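Reopening this one. Same input as before:
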Amino acid sequence: MSTGQDPQKFRGRGVGMSDSVTVNPVFARPGEATELPANRMPQEESLPETAYQIVHDEAMLDGNARLNLATFVGTWMDDQANRLYAEAADKNMIDKDEYPQTAAIETRCWTMLADLWNAPDPENAIGTSTIGSSEACMLGGLALKRRWQLARRAAGKPTDKPNLVMSSAVQVVWEKFCNYWEVEARYVPITEEHQQLDGHDLEKYVDENTIGVVAIMGVTYTGTYEPVADVAKKLDQIQADTGLDIPIHVDGASGAMIAPFCQPDLEWDFRLERVASINTSGHKYGLVYPGLGWVVWRHKELLPQELIFSVSYLGGNMPTFALNFSRPGAQVLLQYYMFLRLGFEGYQRVQQNSLDVAQFLAKEIAALGPFELWNDGSDIPVFAWRLKKGHTTNWSLYDLSDRLRARGWLVPAYPMPDDLTDVVVQRIVVRNGLSHDLAVALLKDLRTAVEFLDSLDGPLPHATQAHVQFHH
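Same output, byte for byte:
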């Protein structure tokens, strides 16, 4: 059996890329091709066992997900969840006529979240699942923009210059939202004195064209909470002074699944009347595999009806509000499984354990000597540090990141956002699955790396600066 294609046709394609995939003779069956083109569809079939082995071996080159301390995304679920995932892999979330029970479970989940986030009347709230927090943020932003447009038109005012106010440390999805939907992004720069959006000087950024303010529960750069109550208080003052009634959308991609369990007295959610909508990631501290997000509005009137479409699809009519159409339904079932499996107390234990590990690591890393903590993992189980001024000119956090990567650990280093770009930090995200024992192993490798770097007689070459383009 041959591929039916001349292997020479694939020579020279791309720089540093293989032109073909070679099959180990142990896995190839008699008569099968032992070399397949890498960038074009093969002409003939392979046995499923052979195709599986090729893909399996390629995927081994990826990093170990459990040692990836850069990602917020969940990397572990139990055996029952894995079984449920396999059983539900064929469910299409959009096909609510064919899978009505999955649709009902989706409603149960966001209603549970509305209750968890202290909506005044969870049954009168409205929400939806999404592919992830990015889509959820887009939907929250769209609702803000449309409500602003409707109010402006009703008042006979122009709608051509909307703006959205947020910290310069927002996740890139908000930059995308403003770009895609033609909204001016107004960034309040973070500084050493104001390390989060805290309401300081907010009156200089908002005006009659402001569709809303984004507050972050768990800044991706560092893991800290922005004080939503302080932002709301400042907007209350601005309304009293100017009449401007500006809503808040809380980007709770991570913190919205930490704070209710571990910081229950912190007011950041629908207890604050100015909070109109909240999003979170089911696939982060919701403890589900990617990709799943949620967005919930305080009450139904905050989601303009004109954004909700009634679609005739596969035998039924259904309302839909989403950027995606067909998408997996399995993750929604996994979220419901986790809510049932853990309950409030179970989530509380899991999240608190992650916080305990994060704070243990932060304390031990601070004690090493060369580092100064930016935060200590007291908000979400995420913390960052920087090199102390004057400690060394021979190495940087980029070099330390490379040394740890050689041991399998992915611990990114990157510059802070605008107005603090001269500050380079390193960050660890603690998720369910990073046990205390693994944390101890990480500390051992970290100490070894620091000892090696501190022993250098001169500076290392800095080709590693390429890692500066890390995207949270």
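So the earlier flakiness isn't reproducible anymore. For the record, Residues 1-16, 464-472 have pLDDT under 50 and may be disordered.
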